[in-house]
């Protein structure tokens, strides 16, 4: 049998599971051996479960898999499969085998691959976390926070820096206010080939007088904490903390379901902020937006993000009127149906259409596009082109 055909047969055997072994052998396939056999056993533990199979007895609470067995299984999965597959397999194990209770075993949390879905589940069940597991849970959440921070922080800071206080220059030198782009472009003729660098004759500095409180941009993130918004909550928390650390902005973050809570004071630490959310429950968006209106001092310098699936359980007509009033007062209003990189989210399409009809951009945003969106808003650019570009990227 040709090598490529043999490899395909082995892959199909892994996909179809142990029950297909006799049929595959009838077609000339060889039994799995070595690493492939280990893969097969790891997958069989969750996908071919029987009363005798899986991690243990397969019974209910108190009769399920023991921690050492799960720990060994997690170690096998992490060593045998690519990282992307590990997160899928872990998620299936939690859903198919009733392993959610094991998320709170400290020794197992150390072995879990950081994953947004698992983090959302943990945050939803955070009230049930036993004391012995609290530190392990926080370390697990912090790994995810740090990954997102590495992904977004530099670009978010660049976007804000590129947009805020960029209209005027000042004769007062300041390293923090150096306009690199203008300085380089206007001194290109002073390139020194011997030194291999530009030797500027004149430096350009941004005017920082407009960074006073009265002229700062106020960014308000109003975040839906219903169960379907788990990933958006995690991204929103990290983004809020990054923005809150920038002196050129004032940042607020509000969480809502059928009530609301202002979490701005927790913005120093995204993990603390995340544990301030209460994932799950219904939604009263209108009530939360009404509170956010009280945080607005200068409408023309306010950027309001409503991050929600728009499944309004409160007064829908009042919500639309309130959003229209916000926009009419000069506030830049943007509705993000999700802040996620996992495909099309579920949302109330009819409500989204009505919000868009008010002239409010309304779309799901990949987190990596958020810096571009933020920069365009702060520069006062039309978002219709950005939205067209975003729709093209989705196709």
Question: Could you please describe the fold and organization of this structure?
Answer:
The protein has 395 residues and is of the alpha/beta class. The chain folds into three domains: 3-140, no CATH class; 169-206, no CATH class; 213-394, Rossmann fold (3-Layer(aba) Sandwich). Helix 3 (35-47) packs across helix 4. A six-stranded mixed beta sheet has the order 7-6-5-8-9-10, with helices on both faces. A two-stranded antiparallel ribbon has the order 1-4. The two termini are 41 Å apart. Strand 8 (302-307), helix 13 and strand 9 form a beta-alpha-beta unit. The chain is globular and about 80 Å long. The longest helix is centred in the middle third of the chain and has 30 residues, at 134-163. It has 16 helices and ten strands. Helix content is 46%, strand content 11%.
Mean pLDDT: 81
Q: Look up the CATH topology of the largest domain.
A: Rossmann fold
Could you say which overall geometry the principal axes of the C-alpha atoms support?
Answer: globular
Helix and strand content put the structural class at alpha/beta
What's the short story on this structure?
The protein is α/β, with parallel strands linked by helices. The protein contains 16 helices and ten strands. Residues 56-68 have low confidence and may be disordered.
């Amino acid at each position: 049998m040709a090598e490529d055909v043999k490899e395909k047969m082995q892959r199909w055997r892994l996909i179809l599971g142990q029950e297909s072994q006799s049929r595959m052998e009838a077609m000339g396939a060889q039994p799995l051996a070595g690493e492939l056999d280990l893969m097969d056993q790891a997958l069989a533990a969750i996908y071919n479960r029987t009363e005798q199979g899986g991690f243990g007895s397969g019974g209910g609470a108190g009769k399920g898999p023991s921690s050492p067995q799960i720990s060994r299984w997690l170690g096998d999965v992490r060593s045998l499969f690519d990282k992307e597959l590990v997160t899928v397999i872990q998620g299936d194990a939690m859903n198919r085998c009733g392993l959610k209770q094991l998320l709170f075993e400290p020794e197992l949390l150390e072995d879990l691959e950081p994953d947004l879905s698992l983090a959302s589940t943990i945050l939803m069940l955070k009230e049930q976390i036993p004391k012995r597991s609290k530190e392990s849970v926080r370390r697990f959440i912090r790994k995810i926070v740090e990954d997102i921070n590495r992904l977004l922080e530099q670009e978010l800071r660049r976007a804000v820096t590129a947009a805020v206080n960029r209209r005027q220059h000042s004769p007062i030198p300041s390293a923090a206010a150096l306009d690199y782009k203008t300085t380089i472009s206007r001194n290109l003729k002073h390139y020194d080939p011997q030194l291999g660098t530009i030797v500027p004759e004149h430096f350009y500095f941004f005017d920082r007088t407009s960074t006073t409180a009265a002229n700062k941009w106020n960014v308000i993130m109003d975040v839906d904490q219903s169960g379907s918004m788990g990933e958006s909550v995690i991204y929103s928390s990290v983004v809020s903390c990054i923005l809150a650390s920038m002196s050129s902005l004032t940042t607020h973050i509000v969480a809502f379901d059928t009530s609301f809570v202002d979490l701005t004071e927790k913005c120093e630490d995204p993990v603390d902020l995340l544990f301030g959310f209460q994932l799950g429950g219904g939604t009263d968006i209108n009530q939360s937006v009404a509170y956010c209106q009280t945080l607005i001092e200068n409408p023309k310098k306010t950027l309001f993000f409503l991050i929600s699936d728009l499944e309004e359980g409160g007064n829908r007509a009042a919500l639309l009127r309130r959003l229209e009033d916000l926009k009419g007062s000069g506030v830049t209003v943007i509705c993000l149906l999700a802040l996620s990189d996992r495909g099309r989210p579920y949302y109330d399409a009819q409500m989204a259409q009505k919000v868009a009809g008010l002239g409010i951009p309304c779309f799901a945003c990949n987190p990596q596009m958020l810096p571009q969106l933020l920069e365009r808003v702060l520069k006062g650019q039309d978002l219709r082109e950005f939205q067209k570009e975003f729709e093209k990227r989705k196709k």
